[in-house]
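Changelog-adjacent note: as of this version, every example in the card shows the full chain rather than a window. The one below runs 97 residues end to end.
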Amino acid sequence: MIERLVDEIIERYEALSGQLADPAIFAEPGRFAEVSKAHADLQEAYDLAREFAAAQAALVDAETLMAEGGLDAEMKEYLSDEKAAARETMARLEDAI
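Full-length structure tokens:
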């Protein structure tokens, strides 16, 4: 559920960024101000969503490496720490998003 919300926030923000980059936005009076405000209003949520997505990717990467096996004890400990940190970050951000 949170993953879907994160994806929606990122997609919406990037769509607004694309609109702001299009010179045609100035052809419609008030459109630039409307899109610019929506973009600014979404900035904080976007930053949190990107951080959540990065933590989620780090968790998946660590789990994938651990599942492949053949790791020494030091690497296993490092990956376990990475997984714990990613989960902690995701939990914190889930509350903030």
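Structural remarks: Helices lie at 2-21, 31-68, 73-96.
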